[in-house]
Amino acid sequence: LGIFVGFSINVGGKDSQTFLIAGAILVVVSKFGMESVTGSLIGIGIGDIVSSVFAALLTLFVPATIIVALKTVFSIAKI
Question: Where are the domains of the chain?
């Protein structure tokens, strides 16, 4: 799903920079959030739910961010 989003999203110029910054921040926060929730809420069932949400965000945004970053690099290289 993330690969499809990365190819289908049409961002350029300032929008691609905003998407890449937001995507990178979301990936980092989701990764650290997933680790901290798993460690602190082991006995509570909600930890699994929150961890699954963070994993879903990572699954969506990591490939999309990588593809948009590559598209941005190639568009800069053409100039």
Answer: 13-78
pTM of the model: 0.71
Left if phi > 0, otherwise alpha if psi is -120 to 50, otherwise beta: which for 39? alpha
CA atoms within 13 A on the CB side of 37: 17
Amino acid at residue number 57: L
Spans of the chain below 50 pLDDT: none
Residue whose token pair is 């990764």: 31
Contact 7, 55 (CB under 8 A): no
The per-residue DSSP string of 1-67 comes to -HHHHHHH----THHHHHHHHHHHHHHHHHHHHHHHHHHH-SSSTHHHHHHHHHHHHHHHHHHHHHH
